[in-house]
């Protein structure tokens, strides 16, 4: 008998909290860079660095998620094969 796994989903409130938190953090860094008493090229370098860090974080999160999903699919396929073999196996069958 197979046990089905319950798919965990985030609530709308959790999703909203994550989006709002990200927006506040990005806005705070942007304001901080804008208010920084430094030359324009230093502020531009920091701004580009923050954008690069942000896109890299999104890419890393996607790669980790994709790897976990692929491992889960492979695990399910292996489990289904094992269950099929066990269901077809009859230890009392006479061998010819």
Automatic annotation (TrEMBL):
The UniProt record lists the keyword Iron: no
One Pfam family cited in the UniProt record for this chain: YiaAB
Alphabetized UniProt keyword annotations: Membrane, Transmembrane, Transmembrane helix
InterPro entries, sorted: YiaA-like, YiaAB
Record bears the keyword Transmembrane: yes
Segments traversing the membrane: 12-34, 40-61
Occurrences of domain YiaAB two helix (ranges): 15-66
Record-given protein name: YiaA/YiaB family inner membrane protein
Native source species: Streptomyces omiyaensis
